[in-house]
Amino acid sequence: SNPVLLRQVCGKMAECTKLDLYERAMYGLFAGQIGPVAAVSVTFHDFLWANYKVALLQRVLHLRGKPQLQG
Fold first, then answer.
1. Whole-prediction pTM value?
2. For helices 21-31 and 3-15, what crossing angle results, to 10°?
3. Conformational region of residue 32, where left means phi above 0, alpha means psi within -120 to 50, and beta covers everything else
4. Of 26, 22, 27, 23, nearest to 9 (Cα)?
5. Digitized pLDDT (tens) for each residue of the chain, 71 residues in all
6. Amino acid 62: pLDDT
7. pLDDT score of 69
8. Distance, CA of 31 to CA of 20 (rounded, Å)
9. What confidence score (pLDDT) does residue 70 get?
10. Cα 17 vs. chain centroid, distance in angstroms?
């Protein structure tokens, strides 16, 4: 399993306009992209949780010395 490759593939899937908005949001979370998640966020809590999830992923990657997320 290659987590960097997984994030890259999920990032491409999150940008695919042929997918449902909620599928794109799910892939966006895995890739660390807030845009697709914000598109389906209904409440402030949804948006806050998504931002926290992306920030946490960035921090973990930083601590592990892994490549940072793009976008």
1. 0.81
2. 150
3. left
4. 27
5. 688 899 999 999 999 999 999 999 999 999 999 999 999 999 999 999 999 998 998 888 888 886 666 55
6. 82
7. 61
8. 16
9. 58
10. 16
By the 10 Å C-beta count (0-12 exposed, 13-18 middle, 19+ buried), 51 is classed as middle
> What are the start-end ranges of the H helices in the chain?
3-15, 21-31, 34-40, 44-64
Distances from the Cα of 18 to the Cαs of 11, 13, 39, 45, in angstroms?
14, 9, 15, 27
> Are the CB atoms for 34 and 28 separated by under 8 Å?
yes
| CA separation for the pair 26, 29 (Å, rounded) | 5
Cβ(5)–Cβ(68) below 8 Å: no
